[in-house]
Amino acid sequence: MIIYGVALLAICTLVGISIGQVLGHLLGLPANVGGVGIAMILLILSGSYLNKKGVIDPKTEQGVEFWSAVYIPVVVAMAAKQNVFGAFSGGAMAISAGVTAVVLGFALVPVLDRMGKEKTQASKSISSPSTDRV
Amino acid sequence: MFESLLLVSTKYSLIVGFAVIGLTMWFSYWLSAKFTRGRVHGSAIAILLGLTMAYFSGAFTGGHKGVVDVPLLSGIGLLGGSMLRDFAIVATGFGVKIEEIKRAGKSGVLALFFGIFSSFIAGAAIAMAFGYTDAVSITTIGAGAITYIVGPVTGAAIGASSEVMALSIAAGLVKSILVMVVTPFVAPLIQLNNPRTAVIFGGLMGTSSGVAAGLAATDAKLVPYGCLTAAFYTALGCLLGPSVLFLAVRALLPG
Known about the structure:
The complex is a heterodimer of chains A (134) and B (255). Chain A has 134 residues and is mainly alpha-helical. Chain A folds into 2 domains: 1-78, no CATH class; 83-128. Helices cover 81% and strands 0% of the residues of chain A. The longest helix of chain A has 37 residues, at 91-127. Chain B folds into 2 domains: 2-80, no CATH class; 98-252, no CATH class. In chain B, 77% of the residues lie in helices and 0% in strands. In chain B, helix 11 (208-218) packs antiparallel against helix 12. In chain B, 59% of the residues are buried. Classes of the chains: A mainly alpha (134), B mainly alpha (255). At the A-B interface, helix 1, helix 2, helix 3, helix 4 and helix 5 of A face helix 2, helix 3, helix 4, helix 5 and helix 6 of B.
């Protein structure tokens, strides 16, 4: 039944967000520590476990897939409720601070990508020189 | 008549949200196919339209919540609120391969620290270039460049003035909006086309809304990977901002 999928998703979300909230409280932070990420990992693990057990039928899957498909419209709605006017009336300093942070972030993506890759490729070529391309 | 319509739209706010956003999506995909031959993704156009509507709503109503401040459209707030956003983000995790996450895990953690430090340094440097000399203001504006939540949280903890806190929020908003808009165009240049770089991207940018929308407009398959690391960013920023980063700024400032 579709509701089983929706319920699985809801339980994983609630448990994950709650763990994040408690973690934040324990660390004395006014923020949720990785709740969405924890919830996602719970869903991945429980999903693959239940799949192996053969409990998840296509209908159940649809209950999760619907929300995954609704993701982009939800994000569009989220964009429509941002304080865009406030951001642009923050003045030149706020704008240049935001822009610089974003430019640096983009520039660092290839740098970090290469950093991790060199290590794994080096270790792979030592262990098995025949399969250096994965 | 307007009052009856208002009554319907408040009572059925979420339904209004579905209808309005659905039509916006349809219009965006039509624009994408007709004028860009699909080169600019329909979802990218839809997000841009959403932000544009939010800008004009803010300009006309004087509110802080974009189109939500416009009567009749308040339902968009529920549809685009953090509850449904997080619910949908978690749903995208279904079908993610755990091996991909394990493989990129270390780089993701590294990216979180790099992202927070680079954004903070960018914000702090700009604050100094604009004439701020006290450690509290410089730290708060730098923290705002991390995310618009880290800014005021840090500012409140170290006693920043409300003007500086407002500036830090504005800097964070600019960052998140820019990530939403620019990501699909920059993605091909930085190899943002696989789970590994998406994990790194989420850790470097960190703004949950920016990463969520930026990846949606680039390739929806990458969304869970980026959002997974981004989920830890704001909390880590709130942890480091008033402590390590503030102390570092105070130690480095002359006098």
